[in-house]
Amino acid sequence: MPVDVRGLRCFLAVAASGSISRAAEVLHLAQPALSLQIKHLEEALGVALFTRSHKGVVPTAAGQRFESHAREILKRLDLACEDVRDLVTDPEGRVAIGLPQSMAKILTVPLVRETIRRWPKVRLQVIELSTGYIPSHLLSGHIDIGLTFQAGSGSGLLFDHVVDEDLVLVAAPGRLGAGRGRAAPGAHGAHGASGEPLAGTVRLRDLRRYPMILPAGEHGLRALIDGYLRTHEVELDVLAEVNAIPELIALAAAGVGCTILSYASVHAEVRNGWLSAARISHPAVSRPVYLCRSATMPLSIAASAVLDLLGEIVAAQIADGSWPARVGSAAR
Hints:
Elements: H1 5-17, H2 20-27, H3 31-45, E1 50-53, E2 56-59, H4 61-85, E3 93-99, H5 101-118, E4 122-128, H6 134-140, E5 145-148, E6 157-171, E7 190-191, E8 197-198, E9 201-203, E10 211-214, H7 220-231, E11 237-241, H8 245-253, E12 259-262, H9 263-271, E13 276-281, E14 286-294, H10 301-320, E15 326-327
Parallel strand pairs: 3-4, 3-5, 9-13, 10-11
Antiparallel strand pairs: 1-2, 5-14, 6-12, 6-13, 6-14, 6-15, 7-8
Helix pairs in contact: 1-2, 1-3, 1-4, 5-10
């Protein structure tokens, strides 16, 4: 008996639920009918796909390998159907984009608002993820598009360098300068890409003077910071490690400690006088931002439209200063 689409969908439902009875409920099938589908699939393949027990079912080694193939086959089939069915001018379907916290803060509102306005049939999902998880979510098909701070080679992904962001030292209001709109005493006036004043500059080696609260070691931002520190043999006084960007901002604003974030993450708070920030110099510390997608899985019409929209929004925000950053090599 040949393997068919219905059998693949039944198999994935059982693998996801760990129970034939629960999968039958999800699929609105009678349990005997679902069990027969799995039996026919195992006979067609000549292997056992599940280990059965009184607790439920667990994919065998063969089942685990077959699961990844089944997901890719159904994903490609769905894309093929969508490409034939949808008009380019009226795309529809699910589009999932994975954004780090700092990027989500900048991009979510304009991206969601404009997607709804242009393409009401597109079901946009914006998912906040640590950058370390975005490549695996792309490869598994859980998201279609992602933004990361590192580009991997030979990873099955395509990376486009779209933005460079300056990192700044962040502290409570007045901690790094005399207040909003004025540079720190003795420092040269520094401005973000949007023309908003920063509280002067702080040399990289002088960061050791400030008590720090930073993301933990596995966080992409922390890995970037640590790379600069190792290269220039600087050791910081780290009081605590907190991964969430909003909490890092709140802790800095409360004067608990200083932190290091992209200027884009805090420029609104600096402008409003809720934080002070100083550019890091000697050397300047910046991070690249990459737009990434699968190198082997084609984007749907809807995902391609959202991808183009994302590029439009990034370019517009950099041009009008709402995203204080520089255009990356892929966008020049």
